[in-house]
Amino acid sequence: MPGPQTDAAPSPPTVDASVPPPPPPPPSASRWMPKPGTSWQWQLSGTGNLDTSLNVAAYDIDLFETSQATIDTLHAAGRKVICYFDTAYEPGRPDSATLAPYRHNAVKGWPGQYWLDVREPVVVNVMKSRIAMAAQRHCDAVEADDVDSRDNNPGTGITAGEQQAFIRTLAAEAHAQGMSFALKNDLADIPALLNDVDFAINEECFAYNECDALVPFIQAGKAVLQVEYTSGALSSKSGLCARANAMNFDTLIKHLNLDAARYACR
Predict the structure, then answer these.
(1) I need a labelling partner for 42 at 20 to 30 A (CA). Which of 6, 49, 107, 200 fits?
(2) Is 249 part of a structural domain of the chain?
(3) Stated pTM of the model
């Protein structure tokens, strides 16, 4: 779960999420498949003034808040673009009103955000529409946050199989539109989903001593884009980089609000 979005970038095209998405554009011959050793930047706040000059292979940015001009600038510089959206309810998104009736328990620590019943067809169609929007904006991959509701008391009664089916649906939709799909956190479902997703994005596996669960991604030649957070100087956690590099993770040290500041372990 990343930090809040705080800027007001030019609004991207709105997708009507209350109906099934339109047919996807023809997919590219092969989608981008990030491998271990993929340098990256993750910035979800301050995206109205995104620093596009970093010498990294990929940027992970907010699907709604980042301008099309910024995405085009990144592509012109040879960068890949991962587009972030949340599968939990957030206020202030263009499709929030459609999702509001399906809210359940609050997302702990994130005021205004609620877990959604992702088994509901309307909710699934909203997420498919967001993926269609990512394709229309020429994103190379999508990051769907909070897909691990089952582990966080969502109040929906979702089962492991239902959660995995939802994630497979999103991954298949991204693939059909020529984009790769990241599994965000959700360590418990890695054995079931490894062949359905293209890479991992993880928050704080070192802090929680959970990193071994991500090793199957590396063994499969799939990148683990990993982040540890600090409220102090970014270099204060640089000591963990030796472990991250030994595991072949692409680890950043970031502030929780995911601003531009970053410390890359490699």
Answers:
(1) 107
(2) yes
(3) 0.89
